[in-house]
Amino acid sequence: MIAQMLRVTEKEALTPLVTRFRFEHPDGAPLPLFSGGAHVVVEMPYGDMLRRNAYSLISAPDDGSGYEIAVRREDNGRGGSRFMHGNVATGDLMAVTSPFNLFSLDLRARKHVLIAGGIGITPFLSQLHQLSRMQVPFELHYAARSREEAAGLTFLPSLPHIHLHISNEGNRMDLGAILSGQPLGTHVYTCGPEGLIAAVEDAARRHGWPAAALHSEAFLSPPPGKPFKVTLARSGQTLTVGPHQSLLEALEAARIDIPWSCRGGACGQCETAVTSCKGRIEHNDHWLSDDDCAAQTKIMPCVSRFEGQELIIDR
Amino acid sequence: MTIQFNDETFRDDYTFFNSPVAIARFPFPFDKDDYMYSVNMEPHETGPEGTPFDVRFDVDEHYVSEMRDRAITLDEDPLRCQSLPHMELAGWDLLELIMVSKAADYPDLFTLNRDGDRWHWINKPLGIEQRFTFGDPTTLPYGPMEYITRQAQGDFAVLDQREDNLWMDAGMVTSQADWSLDFDIGMNFFEWHAPVPKAHEMGVFQRALKFLMHVNQDTPARRLNWTMTVNPRLDTSPENYHKWGPEKRTITPENVGQKQYLRVELQTFWRLPRSNALAFPIRCYLINLEDLTSVPKWGRRLHRVLRDLPDELADYKGFAVNRPVIVEYLSKFDDGAPTSAGIYPDETDVALNKVPARV
Ligand code: HEM
Ligand code: FES
Questions:
Q1: What is the largest CA-CA distance in chain B?
Q2: Which InterPro entries match (chain B) (predicted)?
């Protein structure tokens, strides 16, 4: 994916944990437009390695004057979000890819129901712009622990079809109530913790929703884990993947080019054949089928890890 | 140099012709002496100057007459252009892509002025001037996809991307190699490719779909496809098979050089920004065997490719009945000499640098 250097023109704390960044072209040139739900990948020179993290765009899809993202600081994460919060200042130049969408609206829908948990509000912020412009019916349900933590609040207009569910105010989300009584042809989109996505799927199944009307994006970042070794079948080279590094990042550090787009186990681009596996692959992706996972003959290097004696991959 | 547009027909009296420039820049599809289906996509990056790969949307000497032929086909059969309701946004995306590209690549032929949503488009070859509001279909005489594809050579399929698949939910199809938009509308990638032999078993479509789903705005791609057509006819549709099917029987050893055409499709793939749809323009180029064999490398190679092509492919492409006559004709141009790699003519054949640049 091609990245261009953009200037950080705004950095604003939305909550104690979430910060908004705005990027613009250094010469003021317009940036490519995008569709609601798209993300960009931001490159961070982090220590002696390059970290690339995907962030949903929160700005208006038809506004090419800049891209905006909201980054939640994950203190137990691998450091990418800490870098954004701690090391990036306005005026910096950063490499940002063009937008790519793995969570687009189904434009056939008669109505769109958007369900966000926590930082999972981000892809919906660009979708809200698109939906308002298209003037199609929608409703948004946004669950957060407290108002202080609800980074999306700043961006949400107060409209009757935008619902807040703040759990420390005793206002929890009732999925059954949300999903029942929606008109035929409604599509539902969920973004947030895995538990929320599973709960929506479960409730939807109980209410007889067709699977094609359900869409979700799990906010997956490569989980840290124990270091492990991997051997590359084509060169015979053996690499060590560090505890806060993904296999994809370790390959890139060794200058092995492999295709990617989401870096979060969702798009399938980085799929790699496993030629020998003595041990257990920790499949953290949403791409491979259960059979593929059980067979241990494929791995998604952007998120998955390994524990055992020998892992040889076809790279 | 500006383009001299031919006044020609693609039906009835078939006055279509290729000038020497059009022959020299023809997108010959074979890079080696044999052919089998493959996942033959490559980045749609600029190719050698003057070739059809030089710009995003090639405009050539056939432009004006091709657009006239499209209008006739649409008059007779409006269902050649369809767009399901959810594809209107993709139609605007496509209109923008084509207008912006044409105006940038052919500034002497096309002009686009934009002031916010108020657009002003001038198409000199077709004598069109239009002021309209981007996003407001009431300000155009047709829907956005139909409006712009009546002014752009080649067929267009516009695919919605959802459920890990592509869906043929809109298109403008008047110059197709025997397939029907009205039949395929609403189908997904595997459904509309079902009639193709061999390629499914080879895993071509699985891999091709995966590739297409990841075509991004800044990474357009292309591939070449080909078939054989009797007479320079654009509309070889199933709907009108009764008109062109019988013409296959008119081929004789005497007329095959003039009446038998190699039909090449330059297919490109574009991610559309606002709708996340995929645009799939299929640009058709025709050349008869007589003109084609004026380039010695192409004559030798086409002979070998058609002679050795698996029967299933000749059947599917619809020229099995004329294959013996075609191969016999071409054999006269094949002296058995080795051919160079790649699709372009050899230096000694036609110097490509003699193809005048168009801008
Ligand atoms: C999304 C874009 C595409 C569209 C809309 C499309 C559409 C079609 C259609 C309508 C046909 C005719 C099928 C019939 O007989 O009814 C066809 C044939 C075929 N397509 Fe595609 N196609 C697309 C992309 C691709 C790609 C990427 C490949 C890559 C390998 C491919 C390979 C083929 C082949 C090999 C045939 C048979 C052609 C022949 O032998 O003349 N297509 N396609
Ligand atoms: S990069 Fe998308 S699944 Fe690995």
A1: 61
A2: HODM_asu-like (IPR021848)
Q: Tokens in use for B79?
A: 């269902």
Contact criterion met (CB below 8 Å) for B220 and B268:
yes
Average pLDDT over residues B61-73: 98
Q: Do A33 and B275 touch (CB under 8 A)?
A: no
Residue B280 Cα to ligand 1 middle (Å): 10
Residue boundaries of the structural domains of chain B:
20-354
pLDDT (0 to 100) of residue B357: 42
Q: Which residue out of B223, B263, B271, B283 is catalytically annotated?
A: B223
Contact A268 B210 (CB under 8 A): yes
> Does ligand 2 lie within 6 Å of residue A268's CB atom?
yes
Residue B76 tokens, joined:
């007779």
B75, with CB counted inside 10 A (0-12, 13-18, 19+), is exposed
CA gap B141, B130 in Å, rounded = 10
State whether the Cα torsion B135-B141-B146-B149 is positive or negative.
Answer: negative
| Nearest-angstrom CA–CA distance, A242 and B87 | 46
Q: Give the ranges where chain A is alpha helix by DSSP (H).
A: 80-87, 122-134, 175-179, 194-206, 247-253, 290-295
- Of A300, A244, A305, which Cα lies nearest the Cα of A267? A300
Put simply, the answer to whether A61 touches B274 (Cβ < 8 Å) is: yes
Q: Write down the mean pLDDT value for chain A.
A: 93
Q: What are phi and psi of B189, to 5 degrees?
A: -50, -40
Kindly state the average pLDDT of the residues B39-48: 87
Q: How far apart are CA A48 and CA B307, in angstroms?
A: 58
The CA angle A116-A119-A122, to the nearest 5 degrees, is 75
CB A266 near ligand 2, within 6 Å: yes
B4 CB near a chain A CB, below 8 Å?
A: no
Q: What's the pLDDT at A45?
A: 87
State both tokens at B91.
């139609």
SS3 at position B37: coil
C-alpha A35/C-alpha A56 separation (Å) is: 11
Pair of tokens at residue A10: 């705004």
**Best residue in B95, B214, B215 to probe A by mutation, most A CBs within 10 Å?**
B214
For residue B311, the CA-to-ligand 2 centroid distance in Å is: 40
Q: What angle do CA B284, B285, B286 make, to 5 degrees?
A: 120
Per CB-CB distance under 8 Å, the chain A contacts of B162 are 104, 106
Residue A49 has pLDDT above 80, yes or no: no
The interface predicted TM-score of the complex, written ipTM, equals 0.89
Amino acid of residue A121: I
- Establish whether residue B224 lines the binding site of ligand 1, counting it when its CB lies within 6 angstroms of any ligand atom: no
List of chain B residues whose C-beta atoms are within 8 Å of the C-beta of residue A134: 89
From the CA of A258, the nearest ligand is: 2
Cα of A56 from ligand 2 centre, angstroms: 15
* Residue A181 CB burial class (10 angstroms; 0-12, 13-18, ≥19): exposed
At residue B354, does pLDDT exceed 60?
Answer: no
Beta carbons within 8 Å of A164's beta carbon, 6+ residues apart: A142, A144, A150, A153, A156, A171
Determine contact, residues A105/A126, Cβ cutoff 8 Å: no
Ligand 1 pocket, B280 CB below 6 A? Answer: yes
pLDDT at A222 (0 to 100): 82
- Give the gap in angstroms from C-alpha A212 to the nearest C-alpha of chain B: 7
